[in-house]
Amino acid sequence: MSEDFVEGNFLGLPESGGDIDVAILQLPYELTTSYGQGTAQGPAACLVASAQVELFDDRLGENLPAGSTFLTAPPWDGEGGSLAQQLDNITSYLQPWFQGHCFPLALGGEHGILPPLVRAARQHPLVEGDLERLTVVQIDAHADLREQLNGETYSHACASSRSLDLGIGRLLQVGIRAYSKEEAELIETDERITTFFAKDTQSTLHGAKHWSQWLETLSGVSGPVHLTIDIDGLDGSLVPATGTPVPGGLTYWQVFETIQALFDAPNAVVISADINEIVPQEGTPLTEFSAAMIATKTIGAHLLARREGRWTATKKPDSDNSDTQASTFFSELLADNME
Ligand SMILES: [Mn+2]
Q: How far is the CA of 17 from the centre of ligand 1 (A)?
């Protein structure tokens, strides 16, 4: 632990002022988690666990922050009377960090944070208001492609469906091993979706072939990308406290390889990431520590992309591109749907 360790900050890193390169955002959002409880405590627990993560990044060859400036932003305040207002407030909280000048990494919170993340990414200079340009890469046990769960269309189980509704151009999924017939049919028919099932990538006989196809797919991605990591994509033994731990998932190293392949892709620009469904557990810090390790790896991969010219800060154009409709988007959308 370094002498200037700051408690409560990601990796304990102090804020040195000036332009922010990496913003750690906390979304203690929990509205629809169906089975487990405690995702609202996830972000804070992940920050505490990050104090135990080594600062050395082997690919950068140096310790984080590696000359860059990190900010651990105050958490989203949880305000909003209705679900729609909460989603709008999350979008408003995220917006200042999606202007292209820094790399935002959000910690959740349940996977229901994905639609507001996608909505915030719409104003990114590389997305230019057209979400069809955006690819979402999803690590998850669940396809999250349901139309609704228990009557709720913004359930965590519908996060990817709602992102497709918002108009994203492409969805790449890996780790998927719990899904319904309806979701399997959507995967078959919606050309925007490419799914690598865990039964294939984790197969003891053919896994290596499928896994290298997944990494090749990532290497071929072009344009702006949001990476969403539901930590239940990892094998349940690594994340025992997450909302719905599922056996048969990705190994720790497969998550690392996914991050590396995506951030190293020559024509892709990973503009943002989130790690969600983090739940602390009394007696073992394994779940939140796994999340903190993955968050650190993600930031290391971002800094390498920056160093090697695959990510460049985009200054906000003179014409203000901030999306003024974003702060009421979900309220208006859901009001329309109820009519
Ligand atoms: Mn999920």
A: 35
Please tell me the pTM assigned to this model.
0.96
What are the tens digits of pLDDT across the range 115-163? Answer: 999 999 999 999 999 999 999 999 999 999 999 998 899 999 999 999 9
| E strand or H helix that includes residue 35 | none
Bin 27: left if φ > 0, else alpha if -120 < ψ < 50, else beta: beta
Ligand 1 centre distance from Cα of residue 14 (Å): 32
**The CATH number fitting domain 23-64+95-311, selected from 3.10.129.10, 3.40.800.10, 3.40.50.300, 3.40.630.10:** 3.40.800.10
Write down the domain spans for the chain: 23-64+95-311
Ligand 1 centroid – CA 207 distance (Å): 22
